[in-house]
């Protein structure tokens, strides 16, 4: 590829939907509302969402992020992150008399409930996901003795199950659509009687952002994804681009852009993972315009209008705060 001439039009394709999903908006609102209503400190178990800028902003307001319940003083208020927790974590909180505010994404809660239902029917559950991801850890905890974790087609080939006739699968909500499709196809090939969830577990926002990337790849020679390295759905966007043969980079913010990435690029796609704030995207766009790009074209795949209600711990606490959260 030759370097673009000074007069050549250089385009940024700004993908939509991008950035915050309804579950992330809800989770951040929960922490902010708790701080407004109760005052700091408000403890948060794990990162409320996987984005360092969001975490730093909430910490500056008085949120204290901890890894485990044992770090929260007995009787204090604690928010469970959007990724969900296991029953064991809830029991720990009860023993410490913690005042729990649950920010688990409703779509993650759906997967937990599916795991419980399958387990109650005596099924072995195949959970498709990434080991050690907070969401997977929580889901595994619903029925640990009956759940097997797989991350690849090769993992499926190594599976041994007690009764192939009583088998089900569930998925982490933030996976690659294509990779998950291949794993499910292999599961069905090996275990024809396997049952899946009534509806797809991969969340609408994950799917929409991946499909948006696919739609613009023929026009791009580079993709920049705004998101933190521990954000599963952000990493999947990079993978989608790579699978399409287009170089891609995951960046926390514009400050991480390497000028060498842009030097020979005429068309750059820009998107953001579901936990990345929009202001970081706008800062990146400004940086690209200052780096020689001449136009920005927004490419909208689908309009998102999903909203989730606040948890009962906050929904009736203050009409004013609830109204703000629903704007």
Describe what is shown at a glance.
The protein has 327 residues and is α/β, with parallel strands linked by helices. The protein has helices at 22-38, 52-61, 87-95, 106-120, 134-140, 153-157, 177-190, 204-216, 232-243, 259-262, 278-290, 312-315, 319-325, and strands spanning 11-16, 42-45, 63-66, 77-80, 99-102, 124-128, 147-150, 167-171, 222-226, 248-251, 267-272, 295-300. It folds into 3 domains: 11-20 and 204-300, Cobalt-precorrin-4 Transmethylase, domain 1, CATH 3.40.1010; 22-105 and 307-325, 3-Layer(aba) Sandwich (Rossmann fold), CATH 3.40.50; 107-190, 4-hydroxy-3-methylbut-2-enyl diphosphate reductase, catalytic domain (Cobalt-precorrin-4 Transmethylase, domain 1, 3-Layer(aba) Sandwich).
What does this protein look like?
It is built from 13 helices and twelve strands. The chain has helices spanning 22-38, 52-61, 87-95, 106-120, 134-140, 153-157, 177-190, 204-216, 232-243, 259-262, 278-290, 312-315, 319-325, and strands at 11-16, 42-45, 63-66, 77-80, 99-102, 124-128, 147-150, 167-171, 222-226, 248-251, 267-272, 295-300. The N and C termini lie far apart (46 Å). The model is unreliable at 318-327 (pLDDT under 50).
């Amino acid at each position: 590829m030759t370097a673009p001439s000074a007069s050549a039009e250089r385009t940024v394709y700004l993908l939509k939907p991008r950035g915050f999903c309804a579950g992330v908006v809800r989770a951040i609102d929960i922490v902010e509302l708790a701080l407004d209503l109760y005052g700091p400190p408000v403890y948060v178990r794990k990162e409320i969402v996987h984005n360092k800028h969001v975490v730093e902003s909430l910490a500056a307001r008085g949120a204290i992020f901890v890894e485990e319940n044992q770090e929260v003083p007995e009787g204090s208020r604690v928010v469970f992150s959007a990724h969900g927790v296991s029953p064991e974590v809830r029991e720990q909180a009860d023993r410490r008399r913690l005042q729990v505010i649950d920010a688990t994404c409703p779509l993650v809660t759906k997967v937990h409930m599916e795991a419980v239902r399958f387990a109650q029917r005596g099924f072995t559950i195949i959970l498709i996901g990434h080991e050690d991801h907070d969401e997977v850890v929580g889901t595994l905890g619903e029925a640990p003795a009956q759940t097997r974790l797989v991350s690849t087609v090769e993992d499926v080939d190594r599976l041994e199950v007690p009764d192939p006739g009583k088998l089900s699968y569930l998925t982490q909500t933030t996976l690659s659509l294509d990779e998950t499709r291949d794993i499910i196809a292999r599961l069905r090939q090996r275990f024809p009687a396997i049952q899946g969830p009534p509806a797809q577990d991969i969340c609408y926002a994950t799917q929409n952002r991946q499909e948006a990337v696919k739609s613009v790849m023929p026009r791009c020679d580079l993709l920049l994804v705004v998101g933190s390295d521990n954000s599963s759905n952000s990493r999947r966007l990079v993978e989608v681009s790579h699978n399409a043969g287009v170089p891609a980079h995951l960046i926390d913010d514009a400050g991480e852009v390497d000028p060498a990435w842009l030097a020979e690029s005429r068309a750059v796609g820009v998107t953001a993972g579901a936990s990345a704030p929009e202001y970081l995207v706008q800062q990146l766009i400004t940086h690209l315009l200052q780096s020689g790009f001449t136009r920005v074209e927004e490419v909208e795949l689908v309009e998102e209008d999903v909203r989730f209600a606040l948890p009962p711990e906050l929904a009736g606490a203050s009409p004013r705060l609830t109204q703000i959260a629903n704007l």
